[in-house]
Amino acid sequence: MTSSPSSALSLRNLHKHFDAGRPGLLRRDDRLVHAVDGVDLDLGRGEILALVGESGCGKSTLALTLLGLERPTSGEMYFEGTDVARLRGAALKDMHKRIQMVFQDPYESLNPMMTIEEIVEEPLIVHRSFPTSDQRRARVIQALEDAGLKPADSFLDRLPHQLSGGQRQRVVIAASLVLDPTILLADEPVSMLDVSIRAEILNLLADLRARQGISILFITHDFGTVAHFADRIAVMYLGRIVEIGRTEEVLRAPRHPYTKALLSVVPVPNPRLRQKRTILQGETPNPIDLPTGCRFHPRCPIAEDRCRLTDPPAVTLSPSHSAACLLIENDK
């Protein structure tokens, strides 16, 4: 397989498994945690793609694998059309420079002993991007202003504890922008913030995409956050993409039972537009001991006997919309 020519990042049958050790002294077989288990995904150039799913479904592990902090167990990853497995030396370092991450918790991802200038400047020093301190300071100021911290000079000497939660998250974004990346991996970047501040950060990310053409993989568990923000939505369950499509298609006509359940509990201001909630029973299955057949069937409210036996392939519903469920054919 190859990547799409219009993609900034392409994944083909990507797996990331972790060794969970042996279940007992007398057992010789090692157990594996199937954190990411056969993901096919394309992130278009200048696209905002939302990756949605419950905690523990593999979203963050996928992001860490894309960032290079975890090595994939198998599968292929293409960065701007080039197989990442073939990159070496300066080319690999350049890829890591151009894929940056915005972490979830701005309180934990900033060093409390460093000034804002030192935090944002550090990636430039690591990658030796600018030879002089004056050039680095100018780039830091530009990154802070791009992240909405103006005037940037007033923030340079502050420490993280002297900033609000929204300002801290903007510093995290500035530190990711300072290297002029082409891809941002945003892992729950607004979940720790107040509702009013969430809107500001979402608008900032949308503005960065519009002004700089950055591709954004936006990881979240909240459909409500991405409804008016993302170009496409990919729904992930237990290490796999179970539905993907343009935002309006997925929100207007979800086809996978898991997607329908997630959407049914999104708060709706207008009581007349509210639908019956689907509360999934039980916990997400253990990724060490995956269910046979469809891995969603133990919690699926409409599962049939065949769902326990057959692992469903993705069904193409439109050129941009697909879902992996054996029961889709019943409601076409």
Write the layout of secondary structure elements.
Blueprint: E1 7-21, E2 31-44, E3 48-52, H1 59-67, E4 74-79, E5 82-83, H2 89-98, E6 99-102, H3 116-126, H4 133-146, H5 165-177, E7 183-187, H6 195-212, E8 215-220, H7 223-226, E9 232-237, E10 240-246, H8 247-252, H9 257-264, E11 315-318, E12 321-323
Parallel strand pairs: 3-8, 3-9, 6-7, 7-8
Antiparallel strand pairs: 1-2, 1-4, 4-5, 9-10, 10-12, 11-12
Describe this structure in words.
With 332 residues, the protein is α/β, with parallel strands linked by helices. It has one domain (7-22, 29-331): P-loop containing nucleotide triphosphate hydrolases (Rossmann fold). It has nine helices and twelve strands. The chain has helices at residues 59-67, 89-98, 116-126, 133-146, 165-177, 195-212, 223-226, 247-252, 257-264; strands at 7-21, 31-44, 48-52, 74-79, 82-83, 99-102, 183-187, 215-220, 232-237, 240-246, 315-318, 321-323. Strands 6-7-8-3-9-10-12-11 form an eight-stranded mixed sheet, sandwiched between helices. Helix 3 (116-126) crosses helix 4 and helix 4 (133-146) packs across helix 5 (165-177). The longest helix is centred in the middle third of the chain and has 18 residues, at 195-212. The chain is globular. The model has no long low-confidence stretch (mean pLDDT 89).
Structure characteristics:
8-stranded mixed β-sheet; alpha/beta; 332 residues; Rossmann fold; 23% strand; single chain
Name of the top-level CATH class: Alpha Beta
Low-confidence stretches: none
Termini Cα gap: 30 Å
| Category from helices, strands and their pairing | alpha/beta
Strand order of the biggest β-sheet:
6-7-8-3-9-10-12-11
Q: How many helices in DSSP terms?
A: 9
Rounded mean pLDDT score: 89
How would a textbook summarize the main sheet?
Answer: 8 strands, mixed
Question: What's the β-strand tally?
Answer: 12
CATH superfamily: P-loop containing nucleotide triphosphate hydrolases
Order of helices and strands: EEEHEEHEHHHEHEHEEHHEE
Bin the helical content. Answer: 25-40%
Strand content: 15-25%
Output the CATH topology. Rossmann fold
Under the CATH scheme, which architecture would be assigned?
A: 3-Layer(aba) Sandwich
Shape: globular
Supply Rg: 21 Å
What is the number of domains? Answer: 1
